[in-house]
Amino acid sequence: MTFMVKPTLVLILMLLILSGLMIAAIFHGPSDITLGKALIILSNAWGWPMPLDGVRPWMQSVLIDVRMPRVLVGALAGACLAISGAVMQGMFRNPLASPSVLGVSSGASLGAVTALYLGLASISIWALPIFAFTGAGLTMFLVYRIASQRGRTATGTLLLSGIAIGALTTAASSLILALSLNNWEVGRMIVYWTMGGLEGRTWDHVWLLLPFATLGISILLFFSRSLDALLLGEVHAASIGVDIVNTRRSLLIITAALVGATVSVCGLIGFIGLVVPHILRLIMGPHHRYLLPASAIGGSITLVGADLLLRTMAPEKAIPLGVATAMLGAPFFLFLLIRKRWSIQL
Q1: Rounded to whole angstroms, how far apart are CA atoms 304 and 309?
Q2: What is the pLDDT of residues 69-85, one digit of tens each?
Q3: Cα(275)–Cα(65) distance, rounded to whole angstroms?
Q4: 3-state helix, strand, coil in the chain (%, to 5)
Q5: Is the whole-model pTM more than 0.70?
Q6: Per-residue b or e along 283-306, where b marks 16 or more CB atoms closer than 10 Å to that residue's CB
Q7: Which residues pair with 149 in a beta bridge?
Q8: Which domains does the chain have, with CATH numbers?
């Protein structure tokens, strides 16, 4: 069942929700920083000088160097994952398609884990994203080639091959983890990346993810009409001048880059690209002109909100963010499978 509302109103409301969540996430934390002092710190950071009465240096460090990068990385990562899922679902005309289901996320994770195991991540900040991009790209290319025959892609084969390749790359990551257990530090870093999270994110991670997120999302927005055409079938899309092969290739490269950049910064965070676009499609309809930006904003809301919820409900447990999103997303994925089976039977 689809509940259609005005897309512009939904986008405005989502932006307001995202702004509120980001402000709450920046102000919330175990350190005793009052709202007034936090506003003074932010005002001075943004170039509006105010007297620093009662504000200590550690307060500025916590707010500016710890909380703000964490929130910004979460917002960027959620946007990248959700819009990648929306593109894949539209491109393959299947609501079950997503970076995690198609194995792209686990492929990117394998690339990042390989860089960590080889010690390249400590040599250059670009080693991790390059390996993650390569893993995501190779996985997506392999899945796409297996499912494609004579220029057409079988969605059933696509999902099955994605699950199979995803299981293979996950097993390879586990093998690398087993081989690295003798080195405690390397093993700890690999475990951290495979579970995903926003702890310890710095401004370096923000500047690493920001250009890929802004450029990739901006380019994907220009493919909204092509994705709308693909929803009606490849024959219709070709009849109105859409280059199906080049369009799919471009979309796969961009989504792989977005997923690779996200995994290289946050680790493996699944099901955001599956759940968020599907819910928004039920609310706003299938038109990608609105669905793509809504998915990006919705992904940011989901990831920032989930991280804030974990920090509020279990501040001392340190539950990995990737584990929490998987626990919420997996039941929803099963619901989609059961619902699709019922619709076929009816």
Answers
A1: 9
A2: 999 999 999 999 999 99
A3: 31
A4: 75, 0, 25
A5: yes
A6: bbebbbebbbbbbbbbbbbbbbbb
A7: 152
A8: 69-340 (1.10.3470.10)
